Amino acid sequence: MQGLVFTGHKEVELRDFTKPTPGPGEVVIAVKASGLCGSDLHQYRASDPSGCIVGHEPCGTIDSIGPGVDPRVAAVGDRVTIHHYAGCTVCDQCRAGWFQLCRRTTIRYGADANGSHAQYMLAPAVTVVKIDDSLSYEAGAAIGCGTGTAWGAIQRLGNIGGNSLIVFGQGPVGLSATMLATAMGARVIAIDVEATRLERAIAFGASAIVNATTTDPRDAIMELTNGRGASHVLETSGAAQAGESALASLEPWARVCFLGLGGAPVELNVRSLMRTQATIMTSWTLSIVELARCLEFITERDLPVSDLFSHRWRLDQAEEAYAEFDKQNAGKGVFLFG
């Protein structure tokens, strides 16, 4: 089989790999769709990437299972996505479904072990989550990370129904947040610097949009909230300026969650924030328990997750795909396998 490897400085290479064989407690997934995630770009741009097969948003079918796998967990032919981390499975965080917070060690697929930009992927059976037949493979891939990341952050904020939610950044995660929050009954105010992404935010349910290149986000938020300020905020872009605008826009008792992986730090002015009594939190993807709940929510409401994708590629188009994705001015991309 062929797998995609980052070789450094925005270079990619397709290499030949042996098809994996599942060991005890493992499965092999025949990948049907593998999403491109914004976090991939950190490795793509790096000078010394890991050398693993990249990609961590797989969706496909179970090709084979190893000894000891309960067929109720995974059986050949099941349609699945995965929670793309592996932990020790016995510490308190793993037992709660937070493999990425394992107290012993965490493996991130696509970074520490071979990922999903290949025809087949090896993973522990405990990471498998089944998807409904009504979901497309590409939708399942998105929910496994990008859309699931938005879900996890919204859960951190608490009940947003009936409230205004400010979403900074309308890339794939931000658009997912806009879609999910709208379905939960929130009024979403979407902020970005790209007009095309803001147009898509309207299509995903945003009640108002703000172009941060032409309008100060804080001024716009104050106007749109009748001078109250933001009560609930998600910062998905990772841009320091967006984070600072978010913190400057809070009303008393506001809740703000940071989930964007930016390069520049966001400075906190404790003196000014203290008067807001704000709750400031972070969110790192989601637990496998919440991944299952996110899949159920989207399936029951038939939400248009596949509409997140603006580009669909073959694996042999990987060079073109990541060059386009690196511009960060469109929607989500995905590799599709026959």
From TrEMBL:
SMART domains: PKS_ER. Keywords: Metal-binding, Oxidoreductase, Zinc. It comes from the Bacteria. Pfam families: ADH_N, ADH_zinc_N. GO terms for molecular function: oxidoreductase activity; zinc ion binding. Residues 8-335 form the Enoyl reductase (ER) domain. CDD domains: THR_DH_like. InterPro entries: ADH-like_C, ADH-like_N, ADH_Zn_CS, ER, GroES-like_sf, NAD(P)-bd_dom_sf, Zn_alcohol_dh. Its cofactor is Zn(2+). PROSITE patterns: ADH_ZINC. Belongs to the zinc-containing alcohol dehydrogenase family. This is Zinc-binding dehydrogenase. It comes from Rhodococcus opacus (Nocardia opaca).
